[in-house]
Fold this sequence. Notes:
The protein is an alpha+beta fold. It has helices at 21-32, 56-68, and strands at residues 3-12, 36-41, 44-52, 73-78.
Amino acid sequence: MPSFDFDLIAETKNDVKESEVCDLNDELIEAAGNDFVMTVIGRRLVIGFSREANSFDEAVKFAKAQIESVNNIKVIGVE
């Protein structure tokens, strides 16, 4: 199965405090697995994936659904 690299740009309702980053990362690992790297800037998240899927669209679709299953996170873009 091919692997696709992409970034999901997401936002939270509130700024993510430094003390909350590890907990948020753990929640995302529970929801989406461990095939990503996350950067947090205020309320913006950049979540870089390297995901195996049948197609790029499928990889993005499933990653987006998994990320948005975590409270207060909304995906706003794909790069």
